[in-house]
Amino acid sequence: VRVHSKLSKSKSLSSLKVVVLDLDGVVYRGKTTLPGAPESIAWLRDQGLRVYFLTNNSTQTRASYVARLTSIGIPCCEEEVFSSAYACAIYFGKPKCRAKDGGLPRVLVIGEGGLAGELKRGGIHVVRPPARRDLVQPKVDYVVVGMDRKITYAKLYAAQQAIVYGARFVASNRDPVYPVEHGIIPGGGSIVAAIEAAGQQKPVLIGKPSPYILKLLLEQAGVAPEQALFVGDRLDTDIYCGKRTGTPTLLVLTGVTSRKEAEKAPERLRPDWIIDSIADLPKLLEKGRGRR
Ligand SMILES: [Mg+2]
Questions:
Q1: How many CB atoms lie within 10 A of CB 198?
Q2: What is residue 9's predicted lDDT score, i.e. its pLDDT?
Q3: Is the pLDDT of residue 12 over 80?
Q4: Residue 4: its pLDDT value, please?
Q5: Above 60 in pLDDT, residue 290?
Q6: Residue 289 scores a pLDDT above 80
Q7: From the CA of 146, how far away is ligand 1's center (Å)?
Q8: Catalytic-labelled residue, pool 24, 148, 233, 238
Q9: Does the predicted TM-score (pTM) go above 0.85?
Q10: 105-150: pLDDT as tens digits
Q11: Cα of 28 to ligand 1 centre, how many Å?
């Protein structure tokens, strides 16, 4: 039985310290925990490896990811969860994002509770879009956009007006669709695309495949890119993000990508290793790092 296929000759796992896991398609799929995920993650921790979870989904707070992961047998803490919403909060807290008066910026949020919640926790001044177009539109420094299952024309209008009158535009992610049990639904990227068209400004992208979010994670973990392994199920977000930061990449086939697609992918999207599922991760690492 072939446990894994290695597509790159240069990458090695000998200095591995941190394993970064995408969530949907890697640890669970919709509401279903993928077989072997809790056991593999426990094994990684037993080996002294640090584990982080990296997701583009901006609808939940880190606290709710911790609650969910812990409830399915993967105990973890907030410091180990990197969502695009949390990364946005860090971004807006940086000196270059300060408002003209030197304070933290005022940010119009088009998104769900996870995005607003993380920004508030980071001390960012969260502004909600007015419910109607005929109301006074707020003056803000930034517009940030993520998945919003209650998107309305009034929200698109508020975002567009803010951008037209000088606010800068930030996207938590650009994932056009989001996988659910019965198929796919419009994702945050579809809303970003609408606001980009209306506001005629390209957004700064925070989530995958932007290297920004993974660089933040590696910085907080205190490791170099080559000391981490990024495990994901998508070529154009997960694998591309890892490759742009110089982090070794591993594709699992429990999400949206087939082995054939991965092997045929252009170099910039081709993972260093492929395994069937996260259940095979211990076997791959024992091989790659030498048995302890
Ligand atoms: Mg995924």
A1: 15
A2: 59
A3: no
A4: 63
A5: no
A6: no
A7: 16
A8: 24
A9: yes
A10: 999 999 999 999 999 999 999 999 999 999 999 999 999 999 999 9
A11: 9
- In the chain, the percentage of residues whose pLDDT exceeds 90 is 87
Residue with tokens 């054939």: 260
Taking the centre of ligand 1 as the mean of its atom positions, its distance from the CA of residue 55, in whole angstroms, is 7
Cross-strand pairs, 24 = 28
> Could you tell me the distance, in angstroms and rounded to a whole number, from the CA of residue 106 to the centre of ligand 1?
31
Which of 22, 141, 148, 233 is the catalytic position?
22
Q: Is 46 a catalytic residue?
A: no
Query: In the structure encoding, which two tokens stand for residue 120, read together?
Result: 């508030």
Rounded alpha-carbon distances, angstroms, from residue 41 to 84, 211, 242, 262, 277: 22, 24, 20, 24, 12
How many angstroms is it from 168 CA to the middle of ligand 1?
Answer: 28
Distance of alpha carbon 234 from alpha carbon 154, whole angstroms: 33
Q: Are 167 and 108 in contact (CB under 8 A)?
A: yes
Q: What pLDDT shows up at residue 1? A: 36
How far, in Å, is the centroid of ligand 1 from the Cα of 10? 25
Please indicate whether residue 141 is annotated as part of the active site.
Answer: no
Q: Is the pLDDT score of 292 beyond 50?
A: no
Q: What is the mean pLDDT of residues 48-54?
A: 98
Please give the distance, rounded to the nearest whole angstrom, from the Cα atom of residue 21 to the centre of ligand 1.
9
Question: How many CB atoms neighbour CB 14 within 10 A?
Answer: 9
